[in-house]
Write a structure and sequence with these properties.
The complex is a heterodimer of chains A (about 270) and B (about 400).
Chain A: H1 2-26, H2 31-44, E1 51-61, E2 67-77, E3 87-94, E4 102-106, E5 114-119, E6 124-128, H3 144-147, E7 155-165, E8 168-177, E9 184-192, E10 198-205, E11 210-222, E12 226-236, E13 242-247, E14 251-252
Antiparallel strand pairs in A: 1-2, 1-13, 1-14, 2-3, 3-4, 4-5, 5-6, 7-8, 8-9, 9-10, 10-11, 11-12, 12-13
Chain B: H1 11-24, E1 30-44, E2 59-73, E3 78-89, E4 97-108, E5 112-119, E6 152-161, E7 164-172, E8 198-199, E9 208-218, E10 221-231, E11 236-241, E12 247-253, E13 255-267, E14 270-280, E15 286-297, E16 306-316, E17 329-338, E18 346-354, E19 360-369, E20 374-384, E21 400-408
Parallel strand pairs in B: 8-12
Antiparallel strand pairs in B: 1-2, 1-21, 2-3, 3-4, 4-5, 5-6, 6-7, 7-9, 9-10, 10-13, 11-12, 13-14, 14-15, 15-16, 16-17, 17-18, 18-19, 19-20, 20-21
């Protein structure tokens, strides 16, 4: 008898919730809901990519025109579940003194990521703290948090407006980091309305000052579905430093071995 | 000049394997890559010598060549790595030495992998002492920090399961520790008769050692448990009188059984570390541990620099019949500065202090990339409060500064 009442209550509650959701969508949705919808669509369009691999060149330059180069290989393994993010493995090729150094990261949603560093000279795998979200990645203008896989749950959103971005139309959305230790108060992202590709992001620091701008271009489509920018330019407005990433064409679903993304396997990289 | 490679029990096999793999390379689709470095190192000993006959040179240069040849099969499931090492030292005949750091074939499968040949394996988490790390012999003349290791012949298989990684190591052939020559700085209180080493085992340096290890990451914890049976890497230094009447040390290697545990818990900016081991075969069975923490302040004072603070407590319960150690009841404190700049500049400053005698061993290490191909390393080590019966008494005047300039190719 008791269980029956409970299930009846549940049914009523469910009906109310369904009605509530239905009525909100029927009416004008809020800017927050629209922002979230856009983020969900960005994520949905990238579902099922499985795994990918690319070589990339990182060009660091300061305001005096001094430059230095990094070369690395980036492998990504998709996590089909939504409870955690993707796994990524970065192996350095250049400069030679860090050749073979590897960085393994398991992205989480709101919890700290799991990260390991492999130092080939000592053959040592070190579990490292991931609290350093806003720290520079190998001296570049990319922070660790800029390079982890995009997960909807990491931010709350707000749609601002639609506007032209080059030849395309873009949604302009604000995202507010929900995870701890972010160096940003908010980000403003330009997402094209055709294919939901993020074309530009403005990063605001904790003091609400414009810190960096990321421009993504040279988009290529893979497997008739997944878009990747082959060029990313991150400009730091406060230091004048610029980091450019040039990606070689991606290989998708190359069948990367799941065990490649385990800390113990890092030792076999070199 | 003496090249211990000539006494290397497996040298002919290794050379043959190298020739075979070298010839085979062009016919197999894959990639061959040459890397490594050549370095010029200068050590400066500002203190006067401690013993009659010891070298008086204040400036002591050294040249180190470590090329690395890697062959990777198409698909990347097979790897052959060859890393020779040659050092030429101006003042220490035994520091001038060559070694095969690695010459190994690694095969990777989905849930297991195998390594055959000469390799290097590291176990552990602590900063101040490598307590559970036992597969490789320490190259004692390369550096005092114990990071330099001699190549160890091995066949290693690892099974990667949902329950962690299970590894089996079969280690045929033992490598004797390297020691400075009789006249060299950092020689210690007595000359070492390294070539006259004695063994517990009748198989001497051909005893086949066995090790097993289980390791796993569970949430924020990374844990490893290991068991080793074979020739202990740390020798007992027995005092002998040489034919010329001079008192010297003769290394003796025991058969030991060692159980090791290493664990790290990572939480926010904190790393909690523990290494512990129990060893039988050198006097009474004893235990030793290193336990401590590392906390990092990220982006201090609005810069990109990180400052880490390290503290570790070292305990060792061994008796006088076991190899001597300075780490019986010591405290390590240190700080690590990482600039996170384009040059990857980092500085580590640390000291290990005996809690009873205050005898201390201190060091500074700094690294900086100069250009895409050149890297600079600075190191200084010195002692303080060394009592007349202290562990560091034989090297109390051998404090040094070292500058290393390496070209990577």
């Amino acid at each position: 008898m008791h269980t029956k009442i409970t299930s009846l209550k549940k049914a009523i509650l469910l009906a109310v919730v369904v009605w509530a959701i239905g009525s909100t969508t029927a009416h004008a949705i809020t800017a927050e809901e629209k922002g979230l919808q856009i983020a969900v669509e960005i994520d949905r369009r990238d579902l099922g990519f499985g795994d990918s691999r690319t070589d990339l060149k990182m060009l660091l330059s300061n305001r005096h025109g001094e430059t230095s180069v990094r070369e690395l290989q980036l492998s990504t393994l998709e996590n089909p579940q939504t409870d955690a993010g993707d796994k990524s493995l970065t192996v350095f090729k250049y400069p030679r003194d860090i050749q073979g150094t590897a960085f393994l990261s398991f992205t989480k949603i709101l919890e700290p990521d799991d990260q390991w560093l492999y130092l080939p000279a000592l053959k040592r795998v070190k579990r490292i703290s991931s609290a350093n979200k806003s720290g520079p990645f190998v001296g570049s203008e990319f922070a660790y948090e800029d390079l982890v896989s995009f997960e909807v749950g990491k931010y709350s959103y707000k749609w601002l407006r639609n506007e032209a971005c080059g030849e395309l139309q873009c949604f302009v959305i604000e995202r507010f980091p929900k995870y701890e230790n972010s160096g940003y108060s908010r980000q403003i992202a330009w997402v094209d309305t055709n294919e939901y590709r993020i074309r530009k992001v403005d990063f605001y620091d904790r003091k609400e000052t414009l810190l960096k701008t990321l421009v993504q271009s040279d988009f290529q489509q893979y497997l008739g579905k997944y878009w990747r920018p082959l060029k990313m330019v991150m400009k730091n407005h406060q230091s004048g430093k610029v980091t450019e990433l040039e990606f070689s064409p991606y290989a998708f679903q190359v069948g990367v071995n799941k065990t490649e993304f385990t800390p113990n396997r890092l030792k076999t990289i070199r | 000049m003496m090249f211990p490679v000539g006494r290397y029990p497996f040298a002919p096999t290794l050379v043959a394997l190298l020739i075979v793999s070298g010839n085979a390379t062009p016919s197999i689709a894959g990639t061959l890559e040459l890397g490594g470095s050549i370095a010029n190192e200068v050590r400066v000993f500002p203190g006067s010598r401690s013993f009659r006959g010891q070298d008086r040179s204040v400036v002591s240069p050294s040249l180190v060549l470590t090329p690395e040849l890697t062959y990777r099969s198409e698909g990347g499931n097979d790897l052959v790595t060859f890393t020779p090492y040659v050092r030429l030292d101006a003042n220490d005949e035994r520091r001038s030495h060559a070694d095969v750091r690695e010459l190994k074939w690694v095969h990777l499968a989905n849930s297991w992998d195998m390594t055959a040949g000469v390799g290097k394996v590291f176990w552990g988490v602590a900063e101040s002492r490598h307590l559970v790390d036992i597969i490789n012999q320490t190259d004692g003349v390369d550096n005092l920090d114990g990071d330099a290791k001699l190549g160890q012949p091995m066949i290693n298989t690892n099974a990667i399961t949902d329950w962690g990684t299970f590894g089996l190591f079969v280690l045929p052939g033992f490598r004797e520790r390297t020691f400075a020559d009789d006249e060299a700085r950092l020689r210690g209180p007595k000359p070492v008769q390294a070539a006259d080493a004695t063994y517990d085992s009748r198989a001497t340096n051909k005893h086949v050692d066995i090790a097993v290890r289980w390791s796993r990451s569970i949430g924020n914890a990374d844990i490893g448990i290991s068991q080793f049976h074979g020739t202990g890497r740390e020798p007992v230094m027995r005092t002998v009188t040489r034919a010329d009447g001079i008192s010297a040390f003769q290394p003796h290697y025991d058969i030991i059984d060692q159980t090791g545990l290493d664990a790290q818990y990572t939480s926010g900016s904190w790393l909690w570390k523990l290494e512990a081991m129990g060893r039988a075969g050198q006097g009474k069975r004893f235990a030793a541990s290193v336990s401590g923490l590392e906390y990092t302040f990220y982006q201090v004072a609005d810069s990109t620099a990180d400052v880490g603070v390290l503290a570790e407590y070292l305990y060792d319960g061994r008796d006088k019949t076991a190899p001597a150690t300075p780490y019986d009841n010591d405290l390590f404190v240190g700080t690590r500065l990482t600039l996170n700049d384009e040059q990857d500049t980092s500085i580590l400053l640390g000291g290990i202090i005996d809690t009873q005698t205050r005898e201390s061993f201190l060091s500074v290490k700094a690294d900086r990339r100069l250009t895409d191909h050149w890297k600079m390393k600075f190191e200084a080590r010195w002692t303080a409060n060394v009592p007349s019966d202290g562990f560091y008494n034989g090297v109390r005047n051998d404090e040094y500064l070292m500058l290393r300039l390496a070209r990577f190719f």
